[in-house]
Design a protein that fits this description.
alpha/beta, Rossmann fold, UDP-galactose 4-epimerase, domain 1, 2 domains, seven-stranded parallel beta sheet, two-stranded parallel sheet, 13 strands, binds NADP nicotinamide-adenine-dinucleotide phosphate, binds ligand G4F
């Protein structure tokens, strides 16, 4: 372990944001530690090939002892808590697991920092989410949800994340710890899991274009999301922890688009002007309660941190489809 380098510990390093963040921190000269869970994690080998500079530490957010050991090993100046059950649909089918990992896991990690006496020196980032707002009629986003908008989560995931958000703020207020939260709206890209709607579509469009499949099966096409690019958002996470004070920040684009709009642009990318013949719908991909619309107002992050997203909505769709065309074409 280098004495001089700044050290960061990322939970959820094997996920979408974890990959982008590990890359960014490494480029900035950090020594990067990442949590790896499971006795034979299927992502380990590919991860080690892509990120040979990350020190993997075995631990699980549900296992307090392993977290204490991870914090002792990494002695981090910064912790980014990205680990979670992050799929809203999955959280309906696995609500208790979601509570254990996505809610209580945060408490376990905050306690690990406190118990090991690292609270004074370690800055802590909690991955909060726009799913905490809910998008219901009485609480529509107007010009965009802000850090002070009402919360009304609509899924076991959203409820777990709201607990996580408040316990993070509670440790800041109770123990004076440097704990910040980023309330991030949907962010996507070439590392997005195939279980999320944008990547499912970009991957299917590429496969249809290459003749590997002839349609894609989706759920509800009307919900609207404020979709940005993950690379822009992990830069925002880092900026949040570099700020002089711990605080809460919304990261969003300030635009909202429906899944139908995403489909239109994605299919146009391969020269198909009408996506309808290629899309089927199945209630299996619908949720017991839906979040109809999300729209964020990133003014606070733009003003105080100087954060600005670089990739716009058409740029995001293009980037994802082109990536999947390259990967599937090989
Ligand atoms: P992701 O790709 O689903 O990654 C989730 C990560 O959590 C994976 O590395 C996973 O590890 C890890 N994990 C799951 N259970 C764990 C456990 N018990 N112990 C330790 N690690 C565990 O999610 P993402 O899109 O990168 O999102 C990162 C964070 O931001 C998540 O907390 C998510 O809820 C939040 N968020 C995401 C968005 C978005 O639009 N992407 C927006 C707002 C907030 P395995 O590889 O072992 O499964
Ligand atoms: O891509 P999604 O699964 O993302 P969702 O539910 O918005 O959650 C993502 O963003 C949150 C931030 O707002 C994060 F906190 C969370 O961790 C995750 O990254 O679904 C987007 C929309 C939903 O309305 C869903 O019902 O797409 C709809 N949808 C329609 N067909 C589908 C599908 N979603 C998925 N995953 N798969 C479908 O076939």
């Amino acid at each position: 372990m280098s004495e001089d380098a700044r050290r960061a510990l990322i939970t959820g390093v094997t996920g979408q944001d974890g990959g982008h963040l590990a890359e960014l921190l490494h480029d900035q000269g950090y020594e990067v530690f990442g949590l790896l869970r499971g006795q034979r994690n299927a992502r380990k080998e590919a991860f080690e090939r892509e990120f040979p500079y990350v020190h993997l530490v075995e631990a699980d957010l549900t296992d307090q002892t392993s977290l204490i050991q991870a914090v002792i090993t990494a002695e981090p100046h910064e912790i980014y808590n990205l680990g979670a059950i992050s799929h809203v649909g999955y959280s309906f089918r696995n609500p208790q697991l979601t509570a254990d990992i996505t809610a209580k896991g945060v408490l376990n990690l905050l306690e690990a920092v406190r118990i090991t006496g690292m609270a004074e020196r370690t800055r802590f980032y909690q991955a909060s989410t726009s799913e905490m707002f809910g998008g219901l009629d009485y609480n529509r986003p107007g010009n965009g949800y802000t850090e002070d908008s009402l919360f009304h989560p609509r899924s076991p995931y959203g409820v777990a994340k709201l607990y996580a958000h408040w316990i993070a703020r509670n440790y800041r207020e109770s123990y004076g710890m440097f704990v910040s939260t980023g309330i991030l709206f949907n962010h996507e890209g070439e590392r997005r899991g195939l279980e999320f709607v944008t990547r499912k579509i970009s991957n299917a469009v590429a496969a249809i274009h290459l003749g590997h499949q002839d349609h894609v099966v989706l759920g509800d096409l009307h919900p609207k999301r404020d979709w940005g690019y993950a690379g822009d958002y992990v830069r925002g996470m880092w900026q949040i922890l570099q700020h002089s004070e711990p605080d809460d920040f919304v990261l969003a684009t300030g635009e909202t688009h429906s899944i139908e709009e995403f489909l239109t642009l994605a299919f146009q990318e391969v020269g198909i002007s009408d996506w309808r013949p290629y899309v089927r719908q199945d209630p299996a991909f619908m949720r017991p309660a839906e979040v109809d619309i999300l729209l964020g107002d990133p003014t606070k992050a733009e003003t105080i941190l100087g954060w600005k997203r670089e990739v716009d909505f058409p740029g995001l769709v293009k980037l994802m489809v082109q990536h999947d065309l390259r990967v599937l074409g090989q």
